[in-house]
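Here we describe the complex-level prediction in full. Unlike the single-chain runs in Section 2.1, the two entities below were treated as one system.
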Amino acid sequence: MKRVIVACGSGVATSQMVSSKLKNLLQKRGIPAQVDAVDIKSLDRHIKNCDVYVSITKPDKEYPVTVCSGIPFLTGVGMDAELEKIIQALK
Amino acid sequence: MGPIFSHFFHRELIFTDVVYADREDLLEKLSRSLWEKGFVKETFREAVLERERKYPTGLRILPYHVAIPHTDLKHIKTPFIAMVRPKQSIQFIEMATHDQVVDARLVFVLGLKQSADQVELLQSLVDLFVKQQVMDRLLKEHDVEVIMRLLEENISEKGLSV
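The structure predicted for the assembly as a whole is:
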C-alpha cells in the first residue's frame, strides 16, 4: 500500500491532526493509503519508505518523494487543491 | 461543564488584554505563569521558545490570525489549553515558513499530554477559529466566565476522550 507521512516539529498536535484529517479525506475518496504522523527527527528514516511527505514545517532540503503542504488541512484554506496533489501522487 | 472541556480549559489560564513586548516576551511570561500554577515543568519555557523559533506556529486563518505554540509533551505536567488575548496583536511567524509574519490576535498555548486522543480537540479548536461571531466575542469580552462559556459552547466534545 502507498504510504503518506506527515511531520511537524514535535510529532504531537498538528501532525496528528493533519494525518487524521487526511486519512478521512482519502478514505472518503476511496484511495487506499497508509497515513502516519511522524516526528521530524526521524524524517530521514521514514522518507525512504513513503510516497508522499506532507510537511507542516518548511522543508530545508530536497526529498526524493512528492512533498505537499499540511497547512491547508489545518486551516481548511486551499485544502481541495492540496488533496488533489496528494491523490495524483498516490496513483 | 463537560469533562473534556474542564480537563483542558481552566479559568486561571485565560489571559486577556495583557501587554507584551513581543512573542518571546509573551511565551516567557506565560511559561512562568504555567510553571507557578503547576501545569508545566521548568524546562517548558526554553522548550516552547526554541520550538517556536525552529517550527513557528502562526496560522494565517480568517477572520483573525492566531498562533498555537506548543512543544514536546515531556515538558507538560497537567494537560491544558491556555488562551492569551494580547492587548495589541503580536507578530508570530507563519507555520511552515521562516519569515512570513502574521499578526496574531489570539494565542492558544497547547499543553497536550497524549497526542492521539487529542486530535479531535485540536480540530475543534481550529473549527472555532473560523467562526467569525465567536471570534469577535472572544476578542472583546472581559468576563472570564463569559469567555469560558463561549469556548465551551463552541468546542465540541464529540468523539473526544481524555
